[in-house]
């Protein structure tokens, strides 16, 4: 018997099999969860790369919903939650594993970033959690749970993480405000602050290899973390094992965040 037998959830943010959302999905599936998934809308419908990539991963695990959703688009989000409601009735969890910043703004100094780039990055990387929670509050059961992904660059200045650090600070604060407002509804909202993992998104962050080396040299565990470890912690926070935990940012980083 699995810990998630009979439980249902929506997962936003699988780009490919390196995505953190996929590592968490694998754990949820192994425990019996039924899930729906969204992907970024494909620009060219004749070559639906994002959809195809997602389908290849999630069809074999019995995905109940697979649809496009740009979190900047209110209608897309409404449609995703409408499909979730129609398919599942009620939900037990929502996973938000989404971030984006325009490359020029991300690579450059914060002091030089553009207003448009900043707005876009904040919209996709931080406001989107509110946008999902806004719909999720009507579909999640009491006892339900929302989880997002953040990085230490939201708490401390990490060279190379630049404007995404500001987005993560906003995301972590959003997690707390949502937790406080949704607690009375019986809904928990938490974040995982993951150590660096090689994914499509992180390849856009400058000095990624240097970051990884720092974890190997200085974290208490003297190594980076694995996607599987982040997956296990995601499973925990979304499960009933964490029924008393909300508004928390759980560091899954080999302890790196405690080092001075
Ligand atoms: O080291 C890392 N990889 C860490 C990542 C360490 C700590 C935290 N994180 C965070 C990221 O900041 C992000 O919030 O984890 C989350 C997931 O990131 P990931 O798994 O590293 O990256 P990826 O596999 O690229 O998934 C992020 C996805 C997008 O992928 P691409 O690469 O195609 O942009 O976010 C989604 C998309 O699937 N995404 C969107 N989804 C809907 N609407 C949008 C959008 N507008 N933009 C991006």
Question: What would your notes on this structure say?
Answer:
With 260 residues, this protein is α/β, with parallel strands linked by helices. It has a single domain, classed as NAD(P)-binding Rossmann-like Domain (Rossmann fold). The protein has eight helices and seven strands; from the N terminus they run βαβαβαβααβαβααβ. A seven-stranded parallel beta sheet has the order 3-2-1-4-5-6-7, with helices on both faces. The termini are far apart. The site of ligand 0WD has 26 residues, from helix 1 and strand 5.
Low-confidence stretches: none
Spell out the CATH superfamily.
NAD(P)-binding Rossmann-like Domain
Kindly report the average pLDDT value: 96
Bound molecules: ligand 0WD
Strand content: 15-25%
CATH fold naming: Rossmann fold
What coarse outline follows from CA principal-axis ratios? globular
Rg estimate, integer Å: 17 Å
Characterize the largest beta sheet: strand count, sense, and whether it forms a barrel.
7 strands, parallel
CATH class: Alpha Beta
CATH architecture: 3-Layer(aba) Sandwich
Give the helix tally: 8
Count every beta strand, where a strand is a DSSP E run of 2 or more residues. Answer: 7
Structure class: alpha/beta
The total number of structural domains is 1
Helix content: 40-55%
Distance between the termini: 43 Å
């Amino acid at each position: 018997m699995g810990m998630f037998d009979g439980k249902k959830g929506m997962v936003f943010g699988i780009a490919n099999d390196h995505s953190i959302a996929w590592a968490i999905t694998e754990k949820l599936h192994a425990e019996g969860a039924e899930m729906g998934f969204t992907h970024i809308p494909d620009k060219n419908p004749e070559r639906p790369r994002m959809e195809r990539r997602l389908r290849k991963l999630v069809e074999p695990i019995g995905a109940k919903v697979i649809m496009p959703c740009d979190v900047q688009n209110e209608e897309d989000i409404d449609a995703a939650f409408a499909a979730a409601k129609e398919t599942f009735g009620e939900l037990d969890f929502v996973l938000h594993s989404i971030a984006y910043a325009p490359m020029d703004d991300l690579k450059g100094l914060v002091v030089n970033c553009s207003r448009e780039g900043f707005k876009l990055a904040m919209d996709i990387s931080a406001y989107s959690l509110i946008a999902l929670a806004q719909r999720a509050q009507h579909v999640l059961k009491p006892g339900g749970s929302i989880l997002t992904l953040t990085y230490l660059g939201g708490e401390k200045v990490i060279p190379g993480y630049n404007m995404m650090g500001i987005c993560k600070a906003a995301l972590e604060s959003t997690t707390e405000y949502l937790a406080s407002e949704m607690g009375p509804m019986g809904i928990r909202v938490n974040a995982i602050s993951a150590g660096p993992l090689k994914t499509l998104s992180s390849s856009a962050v400058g000095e990624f290899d240097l970051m990884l080396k720092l974890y190997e040299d200085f974290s208490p565990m003297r190594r980076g973390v694995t996607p599987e470890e982040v997956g296990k912690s995601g499973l925990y926070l979304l499960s009933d094992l964490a029924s008393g935990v909300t508004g928390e940012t759980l560091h899954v980083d080999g302890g790196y965040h405690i080092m001075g």
